[in-house]
Amino acid sequence: MATNLTYHTHPTLTHPLRSSLRNQKGLTLWLTGLSASGKSTLATSLETLLLSAPYSLSAYRLDGDNIRLGLNRDLTFTPADRVENIRRIAEVAALFADACTIAITSFISPYRKDRELARALHKDRGLEFVEVYCEASVEECERRDPKGLYGKARRGEIQGFTGVSADAPYEEPGEDVEVRVRTGAEGVEECVQKVVEYLERRGLLRKGEAQEGGLVEE
Questions:
Q1: Is 20 noted as a catalytic residue in this protein?
Q2: How many angstroms separate the CA atoms of 105 and 107, rounded?
Q3: What is the chain's Cα-based Rg?
Q4: Alpha-carbon distance 90 to 53, whole Å?
Q5: pLDDT at residue 79, rounded to an integer
Q6: DSSP structure class, residue 204
Q7: Which of 26, 37, 49, 200 could form a disulfide with 136 if both were Cys (CB 3.0 to 4.6 A apart)?
Q8: Distance of alpha carbon 121 from its chain centroid, rounded?
């Protein structure tokens, strides 16, 4: 990285002021789980809910495949490129959160240390980070397999496939993960409700306060 750079801030246009002017506090909902565990489905449902009344908030879904088709199209699935993939999306999500938008990321993000890096990056900037573990067994994900990826991995057509290849493990979040939704057994609405209930319990989201700012500045 170049050394002749200075992070630009403004003494008056602070994050709290931006939040006040936009009448919303930003945060990142970081959805993690195996391929076909339901991350994208849950992310889309959350985005739709938050955009709609009574919340009417600014929210945007950052999908793993979409990002790899654009911003991260130069990256492969080697361990090093997986780390860089998550580093980049963590930076992008933090920009959305700093802009007082709810960033909803749906990435496998298999390595615990990379998820912690994303969390630390947000914490260092005073931004909320909520990890959501979409828990589903490999067997259940393989049964769904909407893209046929598990079958290709089993046949050796895909290398480094998370949860199948020996060199591509998925490191599950610990018991202290903020939200654990059992997408392998629970319906989408139930999973959405668990996330919403957590946000409400934390005072980050309140029903019926969209006009006054659905996300509350602490």
A1: no
A2: 6
A3: 18
A4: 28
A5: 86
A6: S
A7: 37
A8: 14
Q: Tell me the pTM.
A: 0.88
- Three-state DSSP state, 199: helix
Contact 7, 118 (CB under 8 A): no
Q: How far apart are CA 84 and CA 67, in angstroms?
A: 12
Q: Quick check: helix, strand or coil at residue 134? A: strand
Strand partners, 28: 103, 129
Residue 213: the pLDDT is 46
Residue 91 to residue 104: CA distance in whole angstroms: 13
Answer positive or negative: Cα dihedral of 47, 98, 177, 209: negative
What pLDDT digit, counting tens, does each position of 117-153 carry? 999 999 999 999 999 999 999 999 999 998 999 999 9
Question: d(Cα 110, Cα 60) in Å, to the nearest integer?
Answer: 22
- Residue whose structure tokens are 């654009």: 70
The active-site residue out of 19, 37, 40, 109 is 109
Q: Which two tokens stand for residue 110?
A: 């298999």
Residue 207: predicted pLDDT: 60
Residue 67's φ and ψ, nearest 5 degrees, are: -65, -40
Contact 21, 12 (CB under 8 A): no
Q: What length is written for the chain?
A: 218
